[in-house]
Protein: TIGR03067 domain-containing protein
Amino acid sequence: MTRVVPWCLVLLLAQASEPAPEVKAELKRHQGVWRAVSFRRDGKETAEAVARSITRTVDGDRVVWRRDGKSFSGSTIVLDPSADPKTIDIVADGGPGRDKTVRGLYKLEGDELTLCTGDPDGPRPKEFKAELGDHQTLMVFAREKPDAGP
Structure:
């Protein structure tokens, strides 16, 4: 038996998955390639050379993480710019964290992005810090400028 779905229900479902205009505008600000400037996990600072080898490329709500140009993770992000501080949820596409949500905070000031995240499926951080024992990661990224070309 074929079921007929009312067109208004289809329209409502389509609109429900469409982000609000303010979320779309905020997501647009995140687009591009971001290079890590610093990376601190659970009170331990990552060496600057290692941190600077990490990039995150945002295309729509998709993020590809790379180290030394080699992809090591993909994820989807959900932003809430109305929260104070602003929040980000990150869901990995694969690996041991697949389908787990990493909850975090973010601030985007010009071409600098700061992320503070907890462990997968753990609580959202309350502030931008990564001290010993708090199971948080604090990352600062700088937007890479596109090459101007010859």
